[in-house]
Design brief:
Radius of gyration: 22 Å
Strand order of the largest sheet: 7-6-8-5-9-11
Distance between the termini: 67 Å
Structural class: alpha/beta
Largest sheet: 6 strands, mixed
Helix content: 40-55%
Strand content: 15-25%
CATH superfamily of the largest domain: Bacterial extracellular solute-binding protein, family 7
CATH architecture of the largest domain: 3-Layer(aba) Sandwich
Mean pLDDT: 95
Bound molecules: benzoyl-formic acid
């Protein structure tokens, strides 16, 4: 009797230890091998190396596999298990996501001061997902233009946006036209837009340097590209599987230390490609940055008063 019980117990333990390797399906909202997919792809390679026999990721790909503005919904509905996606692409499901660009503290700090925890709760509730990692807190955005403005103002200009830039473009008199990244080149080529919002990194990836004349200073906000895991998929993992992902997530966030020299090099590359910076000086820059910050917070807080205010206090700006 005792032996039978022990044997059963051992068998149980053995199943737990040898529990089948799990494979998770992943997509990126950015084109494969480009700036904002690259580190996620390194993360996948790391998980697949460290997680042999434990957890693996099957990378389905970028926007060819799934339209970028649908990625948030896909991870919510478990169409995929893991997504590399900016909050700007799922503000329809989570208006608070528009505020993440205003949080520029390093993730090591956000994980200590309650920011990660709060944003994870928002993802649990509104996107049925686990907030595994945030990348690129130290990469800012710019507005790129083909018409040279006389002052820091967008009156008379049509600017391609996502929710990241919409409020500031409109506050400064511009016409905002929302498109996915994949439509930017054609919109510029055909003159449908006079410029576009995009981070300081990545304009060469899709050939936009050929259709870009100016980069407007100053840089503003903070890129956020998140790694989300469907919450049911996350809960279905065992501790060892979760640890492989969590360790790789911290490793991924630490890759942000590579960004400063990459930004410096990319600005030089823009100059070499005849993309001219337009700078109206420090006083105008400050006015622009204050306005950009104000209109963005106002917009988030209007749509989600309580959570928006909490995010702003955590951001400290
Ligand atoms: O411009 C965009 O498409 C956008 O919102 C974004 C956000 C993060 C990284 C790159 C682009």
């Amino acid at each position: 009797m005792k032996t039978a019980f022990l044997a059963a117990l051992l068998a149980l333990g053995a199943t737990a230890v040898n529990a089948q390797e799990v494979t998770l399906r992943a997509v990126s909202s950015f084109t494969e091998k480009t700036q904002f997919s690259k580190n996620f792809e390194r993360f996948i390679d790391k998980v697949n190396a460290d997680g042999k026999g434990v957890v693996q990721i099957n990378y389905i790909g970028g926007p060819r596999a799934m339209p970028p503005f649908e990625v948030g919904n896909a991870v919510r509905g478990k169409v995929v298990d893991i997504a590399n996606v900016t909050g700007a692409f799922y503000t329809n499901l989570m208006p608070e996501a528009d505020g993440f660009k205003l949080i520029s503290k390093p993730m090591s700090e956000q994980r200590k001061n309650g920011t990660w925890e709060f944003i994870n709760q928002l993802h649990n509730q509104k996107l049925n997902s686990y907030y595994l990692a945030r990348q690129f807190h130290n990469v800012p955005f710019h507005i790129y233009l083909n018409k040279k403005p006389e002052k820091l103002d967008f009156t008379g200009l049509k600017v391609r946006v996502t929710p990241v830039y919409k409020d500031v473009v409109e506050a400064l008199g511009g016409t905002a036209i929302t498109t996915a990244p994949g439509e930017v080149y054609t919109a510029l080529e055909r003159g449908v837009v006079d410029g576009y919002g995009w981070p300081v990194l990545g304009i060469f990836d899709l050939g936009w340097d050929k259709v870009t004349k100016f980069r407007l200073e100053p840089a503003f906000y903070s890129v956020e590209v998140n790694v989300l895991v469907n919450l049911d998929s996350w809960k279905g993992l065992n501790d060892r599987q979760r640890k492989v992902l969590s360790d790789a997530a911290l490793w991924l966030e630490a890759l942000d230390s590579e960004n400063a020299p990459v930004i410096a090099a990319e600005k030089q590359r823009q100059t070499a490609a005849n993309i001219q910076p337009i700078d109206f000086g420090p006083a105008e820059a400050k006015r622009f940055l204050d306005r950009a910050n104000d209109v963005a917070w106002q917009s988030v807080i209007k749509r989600s008063p309580e959570n928006g205010a909490k995010l702003r206090s955590l951001a400290g700006n």
